[in-house]
Design a protein that fits this description.
The protein has 378 residues and is α/β, with parallel strands linked by helices. The protein has helices at residues 38-46, 61-66, 100-105, 108-112, 132-142, 156-159, 197-209, 215-221, 244-253, 257-264; strands at residues 3-9, 29-30, 34-35, 51-56, 81-85, 118-123, 126-128, 146-152, 163-167, 173-178, 187-196, 229-233, 238-240, 281-282, 287-289, 292-293, 298-299, 302-304, 307-308, 313-314, 319-321, 324-325, 330-331, 336-338, 340-342, 347-348, 353-355, 362-364, 369-370, 374-375. The protein is elongated and about 65 Å long.
Length: 378
Amino acid sequence: MNAIGIILAGGKGDRLGALTQHRTASALPVGSCYRAIDFPISNMTNAGIKKIAIITQYNSRSLQDHLSSAKWWNLGRKQGGLFVLAPYISDDKPMWFRGTADSIYQNISFLKRSKEEYVVISSGNCIYKMDFSKMLKAHKETGADITIAYRRVEGLDAKRQYGFLEMDENGHMLDFEEKPLDPKSNTASIGVYIIRRELLIDKMEELAKEGRYDLVRDLFSRYRARLNIFGYHFDGYWRNIGNIKSYFNCNMEFLKSDVRKTFTTGDDVIYTKPKDEPPAKFNGEAKIANSLVSSGSIFDGEVTNSIIFRSVRVGVGTIVENSIIMEGTEVGNGCTIKYAILDKDVKVREGTTLIGRPDKLVVVGKGEVVSANIDYSN
């Protein structure tokens, strides 16, 4: 594929609360073994993109640790490879990235040193599987300057989370509204774009001179009449994990076999960095039903409809239902955990009750020690 990739992974993730206090949203664990960043990287490498830049900023240490070896995504190569780009703070450049366009402009040397004709841009906090070669084919056939992938979204509350394209009958974009209160259409951008590399360089330099920093507002929307911008309809699996509820629901969907098969079968599977842990251990009283459990975990209690990451310990007489438990967490004996998200290295003391609801989850931040009961069921 005659393209390079850029993954925008620098957002704060404010709506994810405690889950992004110590990590960027792109580093969030998903489906018992993945990180969110695995999905756009794998989509790009599966399409034949051999040079990928990941632009990060806030709380990037966890993400950089995950990306420490590019070989897991077939990017450990002399030509091309994986590049993790962060803000370069100096006396003459004292500011962090001021927006998505600014993050690309501050790393414009990556674009100028490349020779590929096209650039595929993706957000880093969406869970999806997409064949970028098909999107590039459509981009060429329409003669577009920019192609924006979209999907159809229903429900006003859901719509208010996205940017929306208004298009004519040929798919030519007429307008782009970012998170409108009253969307005019149901065609939501999924944060995946294709643009010619030289055009992107030209526009990033132009925006920088004008003090404009946002890719959507200052390029796509502002230049909608001057550039030939088309939409590309994507109807495959795609989820944004930009808030607590959507993150929880996305993980729970991995309990469905058809969703798992989407990412684990065929020639275009999603890859991740493996961990050297022993197999999960199920002791005599353990009961596991409809759950995903990762390596290194030890179970003495009951787990149902849950996502369990590696090296988790569930004590005797403990019940875990409809929950997400992340790496290294220890749940003591006689506990009840329902509709909860327990972050990494949490310790739940013996006999503790943490009960949430589908609309009000219990969320425990990284490294916390919990002994007080929480019950949102009433």
